[in-house]
């Protein structure tokens, strides 16, 4: 059930990019650097930290991750809807692979929050993904409303 709910939110995250141009997906409508494209890019980091780093033991340095979660919202010149969508799909596939073979009650160590179960990690990722999908949907609605 947890993987089903997470996959539903993952699909909703990707769907927030549908129908937008690259320029629209990069558009900032709030005082922060939050954009629809940046939110999906950030969710790629979320997947990578919580599953690839913690469950597969690959370090942040090896993964080339941004220094802070805030930095993961920043878009580079080569970031496009297609590249971010592809990167997110790849991160989600690695996450599914990382979860395989682990029990939900297995205690995972190595995160600054301290030891936690895989169940906790899954619930956290469901919550965070759903939250950011909501942000992206509001921004997307504003973008569509501003079209001529």
Plain-language structure description:
This protein has helices at 2-15, 22-25, 36-56, 60-63, 81-99, 118-146; strands spanning 107-108, 116-117. With 148 residues, the chain is an all-alpha fold. It has a single domain (2-146), classed as Four Helix Bundle (Hemerythrin (Met), subunit A), CATH 1.20.120. It has a two-stranded antiparallel ribbon with strand order 1-2. A hairpin with a 7-residue loop joins strand 1 (107-108) and strand 2. The mean pLDDT is 95.
What is the CATH topology assignment?
Four Helix Bundle (Hemerythrin (Met), subunit A)
CATH superfamily: dinb family like domain
Helical element count? 6
- Reading the helices and strands in chain order gives HHHHHEEH
Radius of gyration: 16 Å
End-to-end Cα distance = 42 Å
Major beta sheet summary: 2 strands, antiparallel
Shape: globular
The structure class reads mainly alpha
The helix content is: 55-70%
CATH architecture: Up-down Bundle
**What is the subunit arrangement here?**
single chain
Give the overall average pLDDT: 95
Whole-number count of domains:
1
Strand proportion: under 5%
CATH class: Mainly Alpha
The spatial strand order of the largest sheet comes to 1-2
- Poorly predicted regions: none
Give a count of the beta strands, DSSP E runs of length 2 or more: 2
């Amino acid at each position: 059930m947890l993987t089903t709910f997470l996959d539903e939110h993952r699909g909703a995250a990707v769907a927030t990019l549908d129908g937008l141009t690259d320029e629209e997906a990069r558009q900032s409508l709030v005082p922060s650097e939050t954009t629809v494209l940046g939110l999906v890019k950030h969710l790629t980091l979320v997947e990578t930290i919580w599953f690839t780093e913690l469950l597969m033991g690959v370090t942040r340095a090896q993964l080339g991750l941004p220094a802070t979660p805030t930095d993961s919202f920043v878009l580079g010149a080569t970031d496009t809807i297609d590249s971010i969508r592809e990167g997110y799909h790849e991160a989600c596939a690695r996450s599914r692979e990382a979860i395989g073979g682990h029990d939900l009650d297995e205690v995972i160590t190595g995160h600054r929050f301290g030891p936690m179960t895989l169940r906790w990690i899954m619930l956290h990722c469901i919550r965070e993904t759903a939250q950011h999908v909501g942000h992206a949907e509001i921004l997307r609605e504003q973008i569509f409303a501003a079209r001529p």
